Amino acid sequence: MNAPQDLHEHLAREADGFFRRGGTTLELDQVLDRAGEIKRGRRMRATLLMAACVLAVAVPSVLVATRNSHVRPPVTPAKQVKVDHTPLTLEGLERSNQPHDGYAVGGEFRVGNGSIGLSPGKGTVAAVARVSGGVLVATRDESGDLTASYLNDQGGSSRETWPMTGDFAVTPDGAAGAFVEPDGTPVLVREADLRTLEPVPGGVTLSAAGVTGLDCTRPNVSGCTVWMNDLGPQPAVWMAYAGGTTKKLDTDLRSVVDIDDRQRMAGVSSVSDTGSCSTVGEIGNGTLWKTCKHSLLSFSPDSRHLLATSAYRDGAGDTELAVLDSATGKPVLDLRTADGAFVTQMTWEDDTHVLANTYEGGRWAVVRISLDGRREYAVPPVAGNDYDGSPFVLPPR
Questions:
Q1: Is 176 in contact with 188 (CB distance < 8 Å)?
Q2: CA distances in angstroms from 47 to 36, 39, 394, listed in the order given
Q3: Where are the alpha helices (DSSP H) in 21-160?
Q4: 67 alpha carbon, distance to own chain's centre
Q5: pLDDT tens digits, residue range 122-131?
Q6: For 103-393, which CATH superfamily applies?
Q7: What angle do CA 356, 361, 364 make, to 5 degrees?
Q8: What is the rounded distance in angstroms from the CA atom of residue 319 to the CA atom of residue 358?
Q9: pTM score
Q10: Is the distance from CB of 357 to CB of 390 less than 8 angstroms?
């Protein structure tokens, strides 16, 4: 009896039967692991080891294919993402989806496949804010006064309006929004519930800068809070707690631009004839970093980045759009507009995309820009001029 030859033929027959029954090849370490689980002794492990070796010789092409699909490739340095830093222009872009949170144009708010008529106020739509269950709308009359109103997702309204100053502010998830009346009274909006908070004393002119927290019963910084900037000759930052207290913030900041859910605050620390300086800090724990190269605008929804523009802002609009690392202030993306082009409004659409309300060469469009600088039309160009302003209004995020 030729034992090695018999063993070889026996194993070959077993291998053929194994594949006919739907089996797959195993790597050497897989064979050993499974053999160890069966725990049938050293003899069984040795037999399986030999079978694996025979199969490795008999079916090399199958093992090569298996190895290519299951074994991790050698570790190599990560490729650096190529960022498009070319000037921002309206030329040569492809059309894509409309803004996720909608936009206002021609007296209506377009979102998804539908639209909501913006009819409660008289005048030009100056600002919109998407909040849970509806839309906040600010219209500006011929004298420049602003009026706020609320419409639900079906376009219904209580017909009640409120005078307001400044801008709307919303939480990062859009669950709540706020604005301020001319007498310094903050108005908090949640799920179609509009309620006034304790007014700032002295009747100062304020603008809503941010809304933080969702627990509107706690009178502290962790609760539902409306942050406001004093627009008067003595800059200051105020907080109105939904629990019933309004107080002035003890800070060196002239104004706040945004607050994230990590209790970090971005704001303007100084302004001069040649530019401005901005800081990012933790509430109650001081400054994390400072920049005099950019003017900060808003945190991304995931708080990882900050939207920014040039430190010196002048003219019809901004000619720089930058995205900074919120932890360090280091630029991730820094774009300049093409000659004659400018941006009148820029806002986050999601964690990795910015929307820019852009003018160039007698046309207005909303451009979607990703963190690597790629861009596309979120709203395609329409004819317009630079002095009447954009026909599009984007909600803040």
A1: yes
A2: 13, 13, 71
A3: 28-38, 42-58, 60-70
A4: 40
A5: 789 999 999 8
A6: YVTN repeat-like/Quinoprotein amine dehydrogenase (2.130.10.10)
A7: 35
A8: 10
A9: 0.77
A10: yes
